[in-house]
Fold these 3 entries.
Entry 1:
Amino acid sequence: MPFLRFGKIKMGIRATAIKLSSGNLAIFSPVPWTSDVEGTLKSLGGNVNFLIAPDYEHHMSLGPWKAKFPNAVVIAVEGLREKRAKQGNEDIIIDVTFGKDNKRQVKLPEELAADIEVEYFDAHANKEIVVLHREDKTLITADLMFNLPPNEQFSKAEVDATSGFWQRFAALAASINGNGQQRFLWHVLAKDKASFSESAKMVNTWSFNKIIVAHGDVIETGGKELYEQLFAWHL
């Protein structure tokens, strides 16, 4: 769906529904609840067993989803519950927490672990979880990388996703063309280069072709090569 960052930059936003081999769903980066969202979930069976709030930004709609699916296991990052409390959000228990010191020891529920891999970028500015869906060879991200302009996400909004000064400015750091995003990753998002690079190298051991980003168009093919290009300084 459409989304404006700072009320100016057309970023778009996306939730990803992962259909598990069990038949149930895992939702990565919940978006605002709408009738369209409800209809899509029903078409996929409607059984949401897992809610993944992947970082310090992509959790705003967690409350309504948890209310709809009270038995869903919530997976998030260290400090998110405390941040939500400071912001006045609903208090939601985090069932599985990824932290800097325990990220290699976290055990996912077997139903989820059967289908996905998870890496926690504790050194990312937003504390970022990324997911690999093994069977589909798909990398799923929130703010780890971007693919502006968000043509898909603004396709029904009757708004040009490419127009405006702020859009051109944002493209310098959030487009897959050129080397601006590579610099943005290195100089802005990576708060600890060694730890960030360790996570980047871990993800690079995964086999994937498609990348689903939260902001911008889905990268349907050639995702691994693009990843290696954007993260070259960390690899």
Note: The radius of gyration is 17 Å.
Entry 2:
Amino acid sequence: MSSTNVLLLNIALDKSNVSLGFTHSWINEFSKHYDFVDVVTLNKKDDLKLKNVNVFGLTSSDSPKKINKLLKLKKIVRELTYIKKYDLVFSHMSPILLIIAKLFNKNKSSLHVLWYTHPMPDSLIKKLILYISLYFSDKVVTASSTSFPIKSQKVSEIGHAIDYEKFYLKRANITISKLLILSRISNSKNIDFIIEEFLSSQLNHLSLDIIGDCLTTKDYEYKKFLENKYAKNENINFIGKIDHHNLSSTLKNYDIHISATTEGFYDKSVLETMANGIINFYCNSDYSKHFSKEYQELLQFKLIKNSLTKQLNKVNCIENGFLSTMVAEVQKNAKKESLNSIIYRINDSIQSQSTK
């Protein structure tokens, strides 16, 4: 790729954020491929010590009023694009920033690309913003075939971008002793379903830890419901959030991870646990591409009573050698979505769009 300038837009620059702490790694990767990377963020808590990266955006000292925030973002984009030509404007999970950049970018030749991987928003205004951002985007890249909620020829599936080398752990022996749910605590993650199925399984004498936190009021209500419901179950533990930069060292303590999200939720946390050599039980068929048919039959379950319980009971009886072979194959497949290839995948997607 020839040297160019990129304007990178994102929701937050905060390494302690469980969901978005990985954005530091993304920015670092972009800095390896572009002459200059200017970052505009909706929540600037950290700075970056990279010689070709500058960070701008909203901080805690800015006015909380939305109109004032929009005006400041507009000003930042205008000033940056007045003094510098950006070949690429890349918005990571922020449709509103993509719209602002498109409207107020003085470089009309810039290519505007949106990265978005999430189901359709609930609120009408957020749905409208997403549709407008799709209209203004030259290209939309997403992680899986179901992780962008609007059908369009602009959309390409390119996989996630996990820090594979950081999360990779070679496991010579697989012994099942501790289970994990690594997830935002939300109704959409079906955590109560997982816990019920686990407690009905032959593994119910082991511990099940839930690592993650809440984002919304409804999330906190759901967490309180879960804590009250399972208060007497001493092996069900709500750990809370763990900073993303500490997560890889924490994962080595676990042997099984369970994800009960449906289509639309292709969570990078699942891929990170795959890279770490953890056995993954999953519901969303988007993950099936990482497993041979034999492994799919062992690990995939449905959101119906006893489906996950039966799968957990199966793995309880399987020999260590089989599990080690399965884990090694899955790790190899997860590597295809490594951070160090994300720029190439984005660029390939852009080029394929331009030839249509």
Note: The first strand starts at residue 5 and ends at 10.
Entry 3:
Amino acid sequence: MIACTAKNDRAGLLFDELRNMRPDIVDLGSIRSSRAVRLFGAISSISFKTSNLRHDFQFSPMVARDLERTSVRRLKSAPGVRHILQWGATSFPQPPTQTACGYSLVTDGPYDPEDASYPSEWIPGRWKTEFFSRQRKIYTKARFVFALSEWGRQKLIKVHGLDPGKVIRIGWGPMFYAKRKAEIGRNESQFASIGNGWQRKGMDVVADAARLLHRRCPDSSVVIAGKPFGMEVETGNGVVSIPRGLSRTEVMELIENSRAIIVASRFDPSPHIILEALQLGTPIVATNLCGMPEVVRSPNGGRVVQPDDPEALASALEEMLAGDEREQRCLAHEEYRQLGGWRGAAEIISSALDTL
């Protein structure tokens, strides 16, 4: 039996696909630390800023050990486990001294202390030295490390010196499944950019590009939606702001009603919004960073542009408006089919697990 665990809910659809194709898969669900341990981890981070406390606790060794204890309790409820497949490398799937069964990992990529482009949420604060050492041990002891992107795969090999043969790119998929509708979106001149943390998502660049586009194409508009976390965007002149989290239904409607989805992130290893849009036949305009160019293969999936360049982004949007919308949507949906999504990722993982 192979037990699947995860640090959050992102792994749900991947594990579902694995269960559908393998009778020896059991999903133990998300492994979370207790509230008391999280509080102690935050306090031990020794910071006078509440925001730093909330951020640092998740990387603390106290939380890692608690996750390991929780994982052990879950494993005891599933006797006969011969291997563990864990999403995330914050903690060992089992205590490092325990060798009852091996494990493999699924990951976006590692913490890289030498990469200045990493946003604050990827940097372990005061625990960076301890966390880096812990991750190296976790990755090194894993039988396989399944990276969602080739960008992540190369990071793992470079940062931790892993054997390239055990680091396997699997791709990624959406956070929800939805079927493409036959009709074209209702607003052929509307674009949208959806995401939380507007600084990292480059929403200021999106707004500037929207104003440039609006001057050239007065009917055009760009909807910027999600939790800003400190950034404000001035509305008007082609910019529509929805500064709050959206429900899944709202996200789907916005995707379906947009000519294309903009992902102008300054850092985004494997954004699910890209696959969510492609499965609905909505093209993407994304920055040429991290794993994004791997799934937005121009021109089929949309367009890729350099980050922090409003002019380049506006020109890409204008180019899409000048093209055939039906053809663009058909190409985007075909791109999703070729990428394989979670089903394709599960097939790669299953094939590797067969060699154990």
Note: The CA atoms of residues 85 and 221 lie 44 Å apart.
